[in-house]
Amino acid sequence: MQNTPFNYLPGTSFLHSLDPRTKLLGVMLFSLLLFREEGLVGMGGFAGLFLLLALGSKLRLGFLLRSLKPLAFFIGFIFCMQLFMSGDKASFSLSSFRPTLEGLKLGSLLSLRFSLLLLYTSLLTATTLPSQITNGIERLLRPLPLKIFGVSSFELASMMNLSIRFLPTFLENATTIREAQLARGLDFKCGFFKGATALALPLLKKSLRSAEEVALAMESRCYQGTYRTSLQELKFQKADWISLFLLGVFAALTFLA
Fold first, then answer.
1. Which residues on neighbouring strands pair with residue 218, listed in sequence order?
2. What is the domain count for the chain?
3. DSSP assignment of 180-210
4. Which of 37, 44, 107, 205 holds its CA 20 to 30 A away from the CA of 195?
5. Does residue 199 form part of some domain?
6. Percent of the chain at pLDDT above 90?
7. Model confidence over 79-103: pLDDT tens digits?
8. Burial level of 130, CB count in 10 A (0-12/13-18/19+)?
């Protein structure tokens, strides 16, 4: 289970020791800056920053890069759409397809943007326990007037945490079902629709069963989305304030650049 993408890996690195709110704010800030960045040079800078953070986390780079695999088709589709459908002047002709330099730039930009978003998210989940992510999200949302909409910060935090928690399980179940179908002699290369159906239907059924089991377990424990205490109350340390200051300086320099 620990080798599944978006799963937590225990460690004693600097990133592991940071407050979850610091890491959540960092991921949100990087997401905003990534959507604002319009140049490949800037994207390269964000990629270099990710490599530094990955080295500082003492995690295997291959494990973090594995988070791109579930959405590799989607990223490749975006790249191809931009490559062949953006711009007017074709670089060369490839049968009925006409790739352009502008499309190559836009495709690379969008592919890098989504890839880096996944990688930064993977770095967050790999260095933060799901329970800590829940506490961090709840503390960040607590000042907002969510009661007007009939929800609480605890309900939203629990919902987000369950979504993050089920993602590694979902990917592991998909791998298990695929291997089971291959062992039964199914050839995924013969027909896309047949292979997708053989994989999607059991996966959907298993996911719904798991969600129902979690819901029943929460109801049997009288779970309510009201105020809840925590065994370990979150508190910013010196390293968190320094990290937040550096994030602010980095954001200011990026906006001024």
1. none
2. 1
3. HHHHTT--TTT-HHHHHHHHHHHHHHHHHHH
4. 107
5. yes
6. 14
7. 888 777 765 555 555 555 667 777 7
8. middle
